[in-house]
Amino acid sequence: MALVRERRQLNLRLPLPPISDRRFSVSSSVTTTTVAATSGCNGISAGDLEKLNVLGCGNGGIVYKVSHKTTSEIYALKTVNGDMDPIFTRQLMREMEILRRTDSPYVVKCHGIFEKPVVGEVSILMEYMDGGTLESLRGGVTEQKLAGFAKQILKGLSYLHALKIVHRDIKPANLLLNSRNEVKIADFGVSKILVRSLDSCNSYVGTCAYMSPERFDSESSGGSSDIYAGDIWSFGLMMLELLVGHFPLLPPGQRPDWATLMCAVCFGEPPRAPEGCSEEFRSFVECCLRKDSSKRWTASQLLAHPFLREDL
């Protein structure tokens, strides 16, 4: 979304994005689990599954913990019903299309899609991640553990970017964890497949707290920003948040709003790692949070950063 041309004078009476496109929250209590999709995969049918309990709900859908009646294998089943908002319907279709194309150990796996056209219900059967989201770990993660998480997330982003897929909503709530300390990327509802080399990804979708400067204000980049760099900005903010325990662009406890976030991202200095952190981590965060998107490191470059050395 392009801001009004008077934005440099800090005119806060800005045109807000449509309500349906706004996600203000820095954190979310709902785990929306989304994964790659292939209809009828592994020969599993909806009748083979038994619902055990609800894992989360939101955006018109419910995520259940389910068990295969024969094998006792545990899965997550995301079910969306009936009269969905048209915008959410498009997001669901986009998510399914993107995830049909993915097959990576760093993206949550889908085992099937079940549709009931008469009632308008769609269910996506997914890998069960028993550790919740990275959101629950904020402030309790050491640099060494962060490096392990970062390697996996960056490998996932490098894979997606190689497929010309931009996630556009990287944040702790969309990174799922299991008991083996594996981290996988989820929730592709606002992601985009780039069809042409000139496609832009600076539209106003996703969670504004984690949006990069060029996505808040696409005019500032002159349309020449790196199309994948927004994911790297979001990733860098998330890494810093997991270490310090609060959203790094605002003082601890301050509730975010759209105008405050816009000013912090577009006009403020990028946040830096606090004193006491290693020089490697401070450099790693700085490489992610450069305001000029063309100077941000790519996922592949970050994988070679000294912070991710095995002996750190």
Architecture overview:
With 312 residues, the protein is an alpha+beta fold. The protein folds into two domains: 14-27 and 132-308, Transferase(Phosphotransferase) domain 1 (Transferase(Phosphotransferase), domain 1), CATH 1.10.510; 41-127, Phosphorylase Kinase, domain 1 (2-Layer Sandwich), CATH 3.30.200.20. Helices cover 25% and strands 16% of the residues. The protein is built from seven helices and nine strands, in the order βββαββαββββααααα. It has helices at 86-100, 143-162, 213-216, 229-244, 258-267, 279-288, 299-302, and strands at residues 49-58, 61-68, 74-80, 110-116, 121-127, 165-166, 175-177, 183-185, 192-193. The strands form three sheets. Strands 1-2-3-5-4 form a five-stranded antiparallel β-sheet, with no helix packed on it. Helix 2 (143-162) runs antiparallel to helix 4 (229-244) and helix 4 (229-244) packs antiparallel against helix 6. The longest helix is centred in the middle third of the chain and has 20 residues, at 143-162. The chain is globular, with a radius of gyration of 19 Å. Mean pLDDT is 81; it is low at 1-25 and 27-40.
